[in-house]
Design goal:
This protein is of the alpha+beta class. It has a single domain, classed as Hotdog Thioesterase (Thiol Ester Dehydrase, Chain A), CATH 3.10.129. Helix content is about 25%, strand content about 35%. The protein has three helices and six strands. Strands 1, 2, 3, 4, 5 and 6 form a six-stranded antiparallel β-sheet that branches. A hairpin with a 2-residue loop joins strand 4 and strand 5. The longest helix has 14 residues. The chain is elongated, with a radius of gyration of 16 Å. The termini are close together.
Length: about 130
C-alpha cells in the first residue's frame, strides 16, 4: 500500500460578493440567496450565503495541490452542516484516519464546520 500524508495542507479562501458572483458565473448557479442581500433576508438569513459547493471545491483543490499534484479523491461522503456568510473565510482540514481515509472538514474563520465528511484518497499512479 502506498503511504499517504498524515494531513493535507490546508487551503483558505475568503469569500466576498465578487467571489460569489464569479462562482455563480462559473457554475451557472444564479440563486439570489448567494448574491442579493434583500433576497437572503427574505429567506431568513442575515446576509447572502456562499455556494455550498464552494467549500467542497476548495477541499478538492487542497487534495489536488498536495504531494505535487499526485493525489486525487477516489471516494467521498460529505454533508453540508451550516451556511458560510459572504465575507467569511473557508479553510480545509483533511486528517488521515486510516490508510488512505481522511476526516474532511471545511471550517469558517469563526470555527464553525460548514462541511463534514470523509474522503478516501488515491494516487494518480494507483489503479484503485
Amino acid at each position: 500500500m502506498t503511504d499517504f500524508p498524515d494531513t493535507i495542507p490546508p487551503l483558505t479562501l475568503t469569500t466576498s460578493a465578487e467571489t460569489a458572483q464569479a462562482y455563480a458565473a462559473l457554475t451557472q448557479d444564479w440563486n439570489p440567496i448567494h448574491l442579493d442581500p434583500e433576497f437572503a433576508a427574505k429567506a431568513g438569513f442575515d446576509r447572502p450565503i456562499a455556494h455550498g459547493t464552494m467549500a467542497l471545491n476548495l477541499a478538492i483543490q487542497a487534495v489536488a495541490q498536495a504531494e505535487d499534484g499526485a493525489l486525487r479523491i477516489a471516494d467521498l461522503d460529505i454533508r453540508f452542516t451550516a451556511p458560510t456568510w459572504i465575507g467569511q473565510s473557508l479553510t480545509t482540514r483533511l486528517t488521515r484516519t486510516d490508510g488512505a481515509e481522511y476526516d474532511l472538514r471545511v471550517v469558517t474563520d469563526d470555527g464553525r464546520s460548514v462541511l463534514l465528511g470523509r474522503a478516501r484518497l488515491a494516487r494518480y499512479d494507483d489503479a484503485t
